[in-house]
Amino acid sequence: MTETMGRRERKKAATRQALADAALELFLEHGYDKVSIRDIAEAADVSTTTLFKHFPSKEALVFDLDADQEAALVGAVRDRAPGMSVPQALRAHVLHSRLFASEHDEQITAFVELVRGTPALADHQRHMWMRHEHALAEAIAAETGAPADDPLCTALAHFALEARSLGGASPTPLAAVNAAFDLLEKGWAAARPDK
């Protein structure tokens, strides 16, 4: 929260955070499908009407950092180190996401398992993640001097985002993401010279 945020905005942000925290705690404890919107509202001591003013759906309660993710993706391209290619920067960004941080943090591990084990959440997460394609393609175009509607920039954005989804669905996420980015960085002939 910034210093310029007024009392009303701070209260709204606190309510939103309380709802997200209550939802995650209940989902982890009881399972996503066994928790109702009413349960979450009661745990956060608000009405269901108030809950829906902050979150449009039950799934949205789990993924409350969507705007932050888009900014981070665009930042990974714009703020990459000198000499680092766009695919290399996107690989590094994806590999530092929650998907891979779970090995070192029990709470993140539980979150990742919740999402992977709940089809509605896995589908919602993928849909939300892929919504960043346009913004990412624009950032890639701007950084490479290509036209804003360049199909190569759009393709790179699309496949870089899909690499994360591929990793999330794989029993070996790290290997899956690295294989996808090897293909993006080197092309099919370099990644699979025997084929």
Can you put this structure into words, describing what you see?
Helices cover 71% and strands 0% of the residues. The termini are far apart. The chain is an all-alpha fold. The chain has two domains: 7-61, Homeodomain-like (Arc Repressor Mutant, subunit A, Orthogonal Bundle); 66-191, Orthogonal Bundle (Tetracycline Repressor, domain 2), CATH 1.10.357. Helix 4 (66-78) packs antiparallel against helix 5, helix 4 runs parallel beside helix 9 (133-144) and helix 5 packs antiparallel against helix 11 (173-191).
Which range does the strand content fall in?
under 5%
Mean pLDDT: 86
Distance between the termini: 53 Å
What string gives the helices and strands in order? HHHHHHHHHHH
CATH topology category name of the largest domain:
Tetracycline Repressor, domain 2
Question: What's the architecture of the largest domain, going by CATH?
Answer: Orthogonal Bundle
Quick one: CATH class of the largest domain? Mainly Alpha
- Helix share, percent: over 70%
The computed structural class is mainly alpha
Based on CA atoms alone, the radius of gyration comes out at: 19 Å
Q: Any idea what the shape is?
A: globular
Largest sheet: none
Specify the number of helices. Answer: 11
Tell me how many strands there are: 0
As residue ranges, the low-confidence spans are none
